[in-house]
Structure formats: C-alpha cells, structure tokens
C-alpha cells in the first residue's frame, strides 16, 4: 500500500508541475476563481429568497444531494464503472505484487480526497450561510466523512471486487435499486398531489420517516439530521442501523476473497477512458457509451458546398434519436423546470417574465460554450477545403444543421414555459430567435478560435476564450435590456436585446466567413 500511496502522491505532484508550465492553466485558475466568487456572491441572496438559511435548510440541501448521488454511486460500482483506471494503472499497477483489494482502495482514495475538499467547502458554507455552530459542523464533517467513506468503500469492494456475484445477480441488484428509487419517487408524487403541489413537499419528502427508514440512503439522511438538528426517535434508531451496517460491511469486505478477476473489466474501462480523454482534449463531449447506429440513406440535392450539409444529415439519420441529443434533453428539462417555476411564482416574476427563458438559455449556452460543435469536427476533414465553392457557402452549409437543431432546442425550452409565463405568440417566436442567436454566436466563435486563438493559447486557452467572449456577448445583451427596460419600459428593453443579439450574430457570421478563407485544417 505504501507503494500505491507514493505513486498517487508523485503522480499528483507531477501533474501539478506539468500544468503550471502551461499558460492555459493560469487562465483556467483565474476563470474558476472568478466563477466561484460569482456563485458564492449570489448564493446568499438565493438562500435568503428560498428561506433556507438555517440548519434545517442545510440538512434539506445535503439530504437532496445524498438522495441524488448515493444510489447512482452504488449502481456504478455494481456495474464496475465507478472507479477511474488509466493506462498507467493497467501497465504498472495491475501486474505489480499488490493485493487486488488494495488496488481498488487506491482508486477509491482519489475520490475520497475530492470528497474531503468538498466536505471542507460544505462546512464553511454551513457556518457562514446556514448559521450552524462550529461544534456541530465540525462533528458532522469529521464523523460523517469517516463513516460515509468507510461504508461506501466497503460497498465498492463488495460489488466491484466480489467474484461470487454473477452478472444475473448484479443485474437483479441494479433493478431492485431502480425499483426502490421508483417507489420513493412515486411516494414523492403522492405527497406532491396530496399537499396541493407546494414547494413544501420537497421538505416533507426528505424529512419523512419513511424516507429516513430506507436502508443506507435514508439512514444516511437520518444520520445527518441527528448530528445537525438533534435526536429524535426515528433518526436515532436509523443512525444506529447506519453505523451497524458500516461495521458489518467492513467485516464482510475484509473477509471477502478477491483475486483480481475485475482486472479484465478495468482494462476495458481504461481503454474507453483513454478515448474519452482524447475526445475531451479536442473539446468534444465524451460519453461513456458507444451510440448505436442504424441504417440510413439520404438523397443528395444540389452540388458543391451543399454536399457538406447532406453528409451531416446522413450522419444524424444514422442516430436513433436523429438530431436530438444532450442539448435537446437539457433544453427540455430546463423548459419543464421553468414552466413549474412560472406556475408557482408568476406573481413574483410577472414584471420581467419575458426575460426568464432568455436568461436560462444564456446560462446554458455559457456553460457549454467551451465544448466543440459540429463545425470543429468538420474542419478536421481535408475535403472541406477542397470543395470548389465560396467560403461563405461552405460555412453556411457546414453549420446549417446546427442552426436547425438550435431551432428545435429553442422550441423545447420555450413551448412548455410559454404557458405558465403567459407569453403571446410573438414573444414565443422572439424567444426562440434569441436562443438560435445564442447558439449561432457559439458556432461562429468556434470558427474564430479554431483559426486564430488556438495558435497562441492552445486548446485550453481556446476554450477559455470562448467562455469569456460568449459571456461578454451575454453581458452586453443583458445590460442593454436592463438599462433600456428601466428607462423606456420592459417591451423596449426586450426589443433592444433581440436587436443586439441578431446584430452580433450577423457580425460574427461575416467575421467568421472572412477568417475561414485563410483557415487550415488541424488535428
């Protein structure tokens, strides 16, 4: 184990030293600090508006995190996908004379270190924003950190390294856990209907004795409530069961025989992870699964640069969900969330209801502006530059299908929320237009960064520049809307925001088409 700890320590040190030699690292540090300060600064107002700035509110938020994350972690361990193994682990750690259990614990230790930092942040926020006494928060941070990680590590060993469990048994275990979660969600839906769809249902659900009595997950919540809020009959009993289960699982994990049969699965995971890292370095979204393709065909109409569009269309038709992807799912979820928010809080936001969807759209676009688009993949193909057509047409047809996807995603984020926010037809169409402009700005910024910025700042600097410039555009539109809205009224402010969005999009399109004339493909 000493050798593994030395390896972890040395690897971490070398990665830090290597990162500090890259200029892009300092840009990322500045951006992360600025973003963290922004979130911390706005967190106080959010907590006050939600009336959760007290110990009970702290337990609700942490309980929600436990309920959301812990079942997912257990399922990933059961599927042998919850630990990170790299190519260096495959070639150096696996063949070494180290017990397979210790290899698993070493991989889990990396997660525990991040959990330790996260617990420190939670403790600081608990004292500052939720007014929890230092003694209570220290007790929770230390005791809960130890018990949670011992229990989760033992569960990981028993699921990941257990050689007696068959694939059928593991599948049954996962389905059972899914069933339990589904029953709990149905119970939450029952409470939601029973208590007239109030936000208080979330508190009632997470504090309900039934939830606290759920093994492991609920017992963890009861353990939290005992340390922060004090003893009750339910949380005392559940805490005892929680600690006893941690002790029992520790004994079972210690006695379990593990000879390293999981190495084969871990090697496959390491290969997939290496591919995902390579995709991530190019700014592409790296999924942990391989999409299933179907047979498809397309009729090519037109010639020259139009061939780019039809080739992309053929690629999307091979996908089971066609042009719908992760952005579509996020847009739909955001639209439903906005609709629910508007249903309960329209009176509070009626003065600026037309800005709610554009605000959320801008935030989503900003968060994902660092990722590559279809255009970044297109310029890696040499034939794009060999097609005898103008750069403007090449750029248009290479990004056309992305504009179509933006329209579809704009409809998804708008259509449901439009009813509860009381938007008329014109406002709905203009809201979709704003979303399309935001996505188009991201596309054309990619052209600029791929042609110019990457030569000087590299891939990381390119992504930071995208984030910064996209944020600047959003800030300009928001500031113009706020200022003109305050002076001339909400309708004028909304119109000015749309005008500036369209103008910036057209300007970026012209700049991008000019830059594309001198662009060269790169890996």
Task: Furnish the topology, listing elements before pairings.
Layout: H1 2-20, H2 23-50, H3 55-78, H4 87-93, H5 100-128, H6 134-160, H7 167-194, H8 200-207, H9 209-212, H10 217-229, H11 233-255, H12 263-281, H13 306-318, H14 326-349, H15 356-367, H16 374-378, H17 383-386, H18 391-420, H19 425-488, H20 490-516
Summarize the structure.
The chain is mostly helical and 523 residues long.
What does this structure look like?
Helices cover 78% and strands 0% of the residues. The protein is mainly α. The protein folds into three domains: 1-49; 52-193 and 245-269, no CATH class; 306-522, no CATH class. Helix 10 (217-229) packs across helix 11 and helix 18 (391-420) packs across helix 19 (425-488). It is globular, with a radius of gyration of 26 Å. The two termini are 40 Å apart. The model has no long low-confidence stretch (mean pLDDT 76).
- The domain count comes to 3
* Overall spatial form: globular
Q: What do the pLDDT scores average to? A: 76
What is the count of β-strands?
A: 0
What is the gyration radius calculated from CA atoms?
A: 26 Å
Strand content: under 5%
- Secondary-structure element pattern, one letter each: HHHHHHHHHHHHHHHHHHHH
Number of helices: 20
Protein name: Putative ABC exporter
Transmembrane segments: 25-43, 58-78, 112-132, 138-160, 172-193, 234-254, 321-346, 352-374, 425-444, 464-490, 496-516
Keywords: Membrane, Transmembrane, Transmembrane helix
């Amino acid at each position: 184990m000493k050798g593994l700890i030395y390896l972890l320590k040395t690897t971490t040190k070398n990665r830090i030293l290597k990162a500090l030699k890259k200029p892009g690292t300092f840009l990322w540090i500045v951006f992360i600090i600025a973003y963290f300060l922004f979130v911390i600064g706005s967190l106080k107002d959010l907590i006050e508006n939600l009336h959760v700035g007290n110990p009970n509110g702290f337990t609700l938020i942490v309980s929600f995190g436990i309920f959301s994350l812990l079942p997912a972690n257990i399922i990933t361990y059961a599927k042998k996908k919850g630990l990170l193994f790299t190519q260096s682990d495959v070639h150096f750690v696996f063949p070494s004379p180290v017990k397979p259990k210790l290899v698993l614990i070493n991989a889990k230790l990396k997660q525990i270190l991040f959990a330790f930092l996260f617990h420190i942040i939670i403790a600081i926020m608990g004292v500052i924003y939720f007014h929890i006494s230092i003694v209570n928060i220290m007790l929770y941070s230390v005791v809960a950190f130890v018990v949670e990680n011992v229990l989760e590590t033992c569960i990981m060993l028993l699921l990941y390294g257990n050689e007696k469990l068959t694939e059928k048994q593991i599948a049954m275990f996962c389905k059972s856990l899914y069933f339990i979660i589904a029953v709990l969600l149905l119970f939450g839906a029952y409470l939601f209907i029973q208590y007239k769809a109030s936000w208080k249902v979330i508190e009632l659900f997470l504090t309900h004795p039934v939830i606290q009595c759920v093994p492991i997950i609920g017992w963890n919540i009861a353990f939290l409530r005992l340390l922060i809020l004090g003893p009750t009959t339910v949380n005392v009993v559940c805490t005892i069961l929680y600690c006893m289960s941690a002790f029992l699982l520790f004994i079972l994990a210690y006695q379990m025989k593990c000879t390293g049969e999981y190495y084969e699965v871990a090697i496959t995971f390491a290969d997939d992870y290496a591919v995902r890292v390579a995709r991530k370095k190019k700014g592409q979204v790296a999924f942990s699964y391989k999409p299933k393709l179907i047979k498809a065909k397309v009729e090519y109409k037109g010639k020259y640069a139009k061939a780019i569009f039809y080739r992309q269309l053929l690629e999307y038709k091979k996908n089971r969900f066609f042009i719908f992807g992760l952005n579509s799912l996020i847009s739909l979820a955001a639209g439903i969330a906005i609709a629910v928010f508007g249903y309960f809080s329209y009176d509070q936001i009626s003065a600026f209801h037309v800005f709610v969807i554009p605000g959320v759209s801008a935030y989503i676009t900003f968060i994902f502006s660092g990722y590559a688009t279809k255009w970044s993949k297109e310029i890696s193909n040499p034939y794009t530059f060999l097609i005898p057509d103008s750069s403007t047409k090449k750029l248009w047809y290479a990004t056309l299908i992305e504009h179509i996807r933006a329209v579809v995603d704009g409809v998804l984020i708008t259509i449901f929320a439009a009813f509860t926010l009381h938007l008329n037809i014109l406002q709905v169409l203009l809201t979709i237009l704003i979303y399309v402009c935001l996505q188009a700005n991201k596309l054309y910024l990619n052209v600029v960064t791929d042609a110019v910025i990457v030569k000087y700042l590299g891939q990381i600097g390119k992504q930071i520049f995208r984030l910064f410039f996209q944020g600047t555009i959003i800030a300009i539109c928001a500031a113009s809307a706020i200022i003109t809205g305050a002076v001339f009224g909400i309708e004028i402010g909304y119109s000015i925001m749309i005008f500036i969005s369209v103008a910036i999009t057209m300007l970026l399109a012209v700049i991008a088409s000019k830059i594309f004339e001198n662009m060269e493909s790169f890996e």
